[in-house]
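Lab notebook, bench 4. Still working through the backlog of constructs that have no structural model yet. Next entry is a single chain of 245 residues. Request: give me the structure tokens for it.
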Amino acid sequence: MNMCHLLEIEFEYSGQKQIITPILLQDKTDMILIDCGYPDFMPLLEEAANRHNVTLASITKLIVTHHDMDHIGSLAALKRTYPHIDIIAHELEAPYIAGAKKLLRLEQAQSTFNALSDEAKPYAEQFIRFLQSVEPAAVNRTVSNGERLPWCDGIEIIHTPGHLPGHISLYLPASKTLIAGDAVVIEEGMLAIANPQYTLDLDEAIRSVQRLLDYDIEQIICYHGGYFHGDVQQAIHQLIAQYKS
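Model written out:
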């Protein structure tokens, strides 16, 4: 039986309660983790996995939707502890994950630093140091748009750039489920663009959302928000309309 486990992880960051939702996909031969939280999140991942009677040691593959620190922060630690895990990411993301290129969020933070107020600079410096602390990890396999991975009844790669250039979402045709990553998030029960003020290319992010209408999606799981409850197609149309009005 193929299963999809939502690893809801609640924590405090910058004095605020937050929740992220990595995903575990399971079939008879593979256990696939999708994204892995901030640095030092392995104990939280293990606790969340144990709630579904799963251990991190059983993970065979780890798919990274993009290289933001809340998605790759524990990647190197997981690979170091469980070297059998194959790390999979879009071909555009691989150099950033592996440390061959500077993280784009780090470039973004450094390039805007001088324009900040004196009051804001200490927080920005702390954020920059945090980004610099993220450990790189080699990517074992790169994927591209439209590629169909054979595990768990098939996982289709959808390149959804905008948030970051190599961002991917995953479509599971057997259950008509979209694992969105940060292509969309849930805010107050509605689909939204993730942190539009920090999205590297907002127009491209909207085009990525529009491309989701090409898929027969009945369920969306967002990294920030979990399961979306409602009419998916209608919600996507409403989100696009917000930016076209």
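Notes after review: The longest strand covers residues 9-13. Residues 218 and 232 are 6 Å apart (CA to CA). Flag for follow-up if needed.
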